[in-house]
Design goal:
- One of its GO terms (molecular function) is L-amino acid transmembrane transporter activity.
- It is a multi-pass membrane protein.
- Belongs to the amino acid/polyamine transporter 2 family.
- Helix content is about 65%, strand content about 0%.
- It has about 450 residues and is mainly α.
- The longest helix is centred in the last third of the chain and has 38 residues.
């Protein structure tokens, strides 16, 4: 791996963007009134988009992961993963300021590893977000099933979810999607707060076996899972923080990218707090009877209310995670062309073709792997770690390996840290993928292989 000398930026991180920064971009080219404004996301909009990218489907699997790991090890894992992904998010912003031509993680891979790195990370990035889009479609179908008391075949709800995702994700800029995030984030937060209060007030979870005795939560302070179970649970926690690679697209559309670092800190602080408190409370009150997704843990009318409140949030999540890969493909197809920033027939045809193509593949994934926990664990293990851990370690090494002066203690520490992140990410990717695949196979064996494209109610998983 070629390690060129670091290009240190002389820009003041707090300096306001210059006029030319807003009218000309190294990725989008000239920004004019004749097309969409791709550089129109402010600081608060950035924080909201980041939080909505993180807080969505992942939070609904955290109580189940805690049931496998135990309360204390689970919280420790949440904090460790949060720390690593916060650093990864920070590195994205620094790398973007040092290399303005970078739009996605594949551009970073191209700088570091050449064409092979570019194509590999490009493929992984697209697969990851399309799989996440599939989990978003699945989440909406679960919500529709819960609200309607399984009022239609699940396959129909999955198709409706895909249509909603395609329609909303076809909005062309993140700046205009920001207002959706302002609706979606409170929606999902209110729903998980309601279910947390409800499980604290109920006598027993609806999934608990009926007995004549008073039910007591069987939560575990420390779990004793097998390796497969433990690595699958950790993969689900990684998925909860794996919106990080989407930060590339968000920082690229910021009006002032120099504010990015504070946006990352605000986002990750809020996300980690929500995950730790909400996840531990729901698990504490439900124990091993916690539902997956967690919004079904209160059962009955409360379950319908929670899913009804969460539905806008799940729709916005699906909008963002479908928009990101579609925008990525769109930009790479039209980059350097006048059609990228002009309202031409080619512009609209390619854009709608990208959102439609991503949605179709995501729909197939949601229909083929309709087990929520298994799907999020597989995404977190195989694709999430490869985009949240290893590349960021390599990005720091790329920008700092050649040092003009005598290397400092901090330099040695950061080299060791970057290598540690790469090694841990690789271990989680290999082990987590194995555990997730085993879990999917077990689920299919338990259902007789009839789960794919099923009409069965998918809101009653536990």
């Amino acid at each position: 791996m070629a390690m060129p000398e670091i290009r240190k930026t002389k820009e003041d991180p707090n300096e306001a963007p210059q006029e030319q920064d807003l009218t000309h971009d190294a990725v989008f080219g000239e920004i004019t009134d004749e097309g969409p404004n791709y550089r129109n996301v402010g600081f608060l909009g950035t924080v909201i988009l980041m939080m909505k990218t993180q807080i969505g489907l992942g939070v609904l699997s955290i109580p189940t992961a805690l049931d496998i790991l135990g309360l204390v090890p689970g919280i420790i894992c949440i904090c460790v993963i949060a720390a690593v992904t916060t650093w990864s998010g920070y590195i994205i912003g620094i790398f973007k300021l040092n290399h303005r031509e970078v739009y996605g993680i594949d551009d970073a891979g191209g700088l570091i590893f050449g064409p092979l790195g570019r194509w590999t990370l490009s493929l992984v990035f697209c697969l990851y977000w399309i799989f996440v889009s599939g989990s978003g479609i699945l989440g909406i179908s679960i919500s529709l099933n819960a609200v309607s008391s399984h009022g239609a075949c699940t396959a129909i709800f999955v198709a409706i979810s895909a249509i909603l995702g395609f329609t909303l994700s076809s909005v062309r800029t993140l700046g205009k999607i920001t207002w959706l995030a302002w609706i979606g984030l409170p929606s999902i937060l209110v729903s998980i707060i309601v279910v947390t209060v409800a499980v604290g007030l109920q006598d027993r979870p609806p999934t608990a076996p009926p007995t004549d005795t008073v039910w007591v939560s069987d939560y575990k302070v420390v779990g004793h899972p097998s390796f497969t179970e433990a690595i699958t649970a950790v993969s689900a926690l990684v998925f909860a923080f794996s919106g990080t690679p989407g930060f590339f697209a968000i920082v690229s559309e910021m009006r002032n990218p120099r504010q990015y670092t504070w946006a990352v800190i605000a986002c990750q602080t809020g996300v980690t707090t929500v995950y730790a408190i909400i996840g531990s409370l729901i698990y504490y009150y439900c124990g091993s009877n916690v539902a997956s997704p967690a919004l079904g843990s209160a059962g009955g009318t409360v379950k319908k209310v929670c899913y009804g409140l969460a539905l806008p949030g799940l729709m916005v999540t699906t909008t963002i995670v479908t928009h990101i890969p579609a925008k990525y493909i769109f930009i790479h197809l039209l980059r350097g062309s006048r059609h990228l920033t002009r309202n031409t027939v080619v512009h609209w045809s390619v854009w709608l073709g990208c959102t439609f193509g991503v949605t179709v593949v995501a729909y197939i994934i949601a229909s083929a792997i309709p087990i929520f926990n298994s799907l999020v664990s597989l995404i977190g293990a195989f694709l999430g770690t490869l985009l949240c851990f290893q590349p960021m370690g390599c990005m720091w090494l790329y920008d700092h390996w050649t040092h003009k002066n005598y290397p400092s203690e901090r330099w040695y520490f950061m080299v060791c840290w970057s290598i540690f992140v790469i090694v841990v990410g690789t271990f989680l990717m290999v082990g987590g993928t194995y555990g997730s695949v085993v879990g999917i196979i077990d689920s299919y064996n338990a259902s007789g292989g009839s789960s794919a494209f099923s009409c069965a109610d998918n809101s009653n998983s536990s």
